[in-house]
Structure formats: C-alpha cells, structure tokens
Amino acid sequence: MRFNHLDTRKIGLIAALVLVLAVIVIASNKGLDFGGHPALFPVKVNNRYGYINRSGKLVIQPQFEQAGRFADGLAPVAMGNKWGYIDKSGKLAITPQFDMADPFAEDRALVGLGNRLGYVDDKGRFVINPQFEGAGDFENDRAPVLVANRWGYIDRTGKMVIAPQFDEAGNFSDGLALIRLGARYGYIDREGKIVINPQFEGAGQFSDGLAVIRMGSKFGYIDRHGKIQINPQFDQAGDFSDGVALVGLNRKYGYIGRDGKFRINPQFDDGGDFAGGIAPVWVGERQGYIDRSGKFIWNPTA
User: Is 81 exposed, middle or buried (0-12, 13-18, 19+ CB in 10 A)?
Assistant: First the structure.
C-alpha cells in the first residue's frame, strides 16, 4: 500500500506508517493516502503533478514537482524545493516556503522548517511555532508530537494535553489513537487512557470501527473493544476507507469489505485508499485510478 508522499518527509507518525504493511516501513513518495472526500486527485504526467476530478478529467494541468491531496479547499504542492498550497483552481494560496507540508486537518496544517515542525492556518501564518522533532495531524483536537524522544499530544492551541510518554504515537481516528510501549501496540482515548492494551506486533488506525493488526506474519482486523473481527490471513493490509480496505495476497493487491470478503480481487501491484469513490492503484510503476467496481477511470501513467 502506498501512502501520501508527504509522509515520507514528515518526521512523525512512525506508528501510523510502519505498521500497516509488513513490507513498508516508510511511506512511498509515489503514493496517496486519502482522507475525507476530496473533489480533486493528484496524478503524475511526464514527471509533473496535476489534478483530475472524480470522472478522470484533468482539471489542473501537471506543473508541480510533488502534490498532495485537497483538504479544506487547499492542497500542498512543491515548486522548486519548497512547499506551498494551491486552491481548487490551481492558483497559489500560500506561497511555497516550507521544507515539507501536509494537507489541512481541523484548520491546521503540519509544516516543516529545517528539522522542526509546527502548524499554520489557511493564510500560511504559524499558529503553533516550529518546535517539534516529530508531529502528526489534528483530529478530535489532538495531534501527536515528539519531544525529547517521547510522544505525547497537543491541542489546537499548542498546549500539551497528554504528556510525552509513548515510544510511538499515531493520529486520532474514530476517537482512538495508536501507541507503542516497548515492542507492542495498543490504543488510547483522547484523555490518554489506554483502552486496548499493547499486545499487537503491528497495528493501524481505526476507521469505520475497525483497525488493522498484525499477529505473527499475518494481518487481520479488530473492533474498538480489541476483539478480532476479521481473522489474520493477509500478507499485507491497510486501513478501511469508504467501507473497503486494501489487502495483499501473494504480492498482488485488492480490496475487501468489512466482512473480510473481496470486493475487488487481488490484481494490482500496489494500491491506496478509496476516497470519494475512487482509489489510486499501480500497475508496475504506473499509477492509475479505479472506481468501486475496479474499473479504471484514469489509466496508469508513469
């Protein structure tokens, strides 16, 4: 499974990245990890990124060196060696000035200057100054941050609300956040209380009431009580989105429903999450987009 290329440069959310697939420790810079339901989706044509709509029509011409997903009407893009943000017309809304940039979440966007991370508003103004060694995105008024090699959580004002104490920590999702203590992974609530004891060798974030976990060499899914709902059986697996999850069997990828049955049979060399009814997939090194039936709406391009 490929993740948003922005995560490759983010010094944070190690847990959310390293756990979901056994073979991927850091997110690929070719991938997309969608959240919400964006109206436009990045595509790469002749080594430049532009955007298509859900029908597969190119609406923002390829012109950026890198590009991320839209959220709150803005998308991070790279021009030269700096990141800024464009609006849905393709015009610059925030001048490229950052060393990394994430999509917006709860009116905050994670950005980097040098080796420190902070958060800006939709005007590009810092609302939480760059100060963290690692950080993640906001959800439920919580974002994970790394301070002196320990992970804790801040609120949208920048106040530390869960003291740094974890070996790894992920974004909140469905009211729970993935954490690691020692070699095992579990989950906390927004007050920092452990609600699913660290017991898994690997895990992902909750979505649609389920979270991927690894037991031995196989991946399955648990519910919010920590009970297994889909038995570990997959070689790789990702988070649920739009009611389906990317899984891998015998080096091919397809999509399952919440019952664990395939909705789209394994046939792709890689894939990403569904959002707004479409998902990125790879055939070799070429990326395309499919709809919920598995039909291409954007044929794979280099």
Answer: exposed
Per residue in 118-145, pLDDT (tens digit) is: 999 999 999 999 999 999 999 999 999 9
Q: What is 17-42 written as a DSSP string?
A: HHTT-TT-SS--TTB----S--SEEE
Instruction: Tell me the pTM.
Output: 0.85
Mean pLDDT of 174-185: 97
Residue with tokens 């080796």: 115
The whole-angstrom distance between residue 56's C-alpha and the CA centroid of its chain comes to: 22
| 242-250, Cβ contacts within 8 angstroms, sequence gap of 24 or more | 242/273, 242/274, 242/275, 242/276, 242/277, 242/292, 243/208, 243/274, 244/274, 244/292, 245/210, 245/212, 245/221, 246/1, 246/271, 246/272, 246/273, 246/279, 247/219, 248/1, 248/21
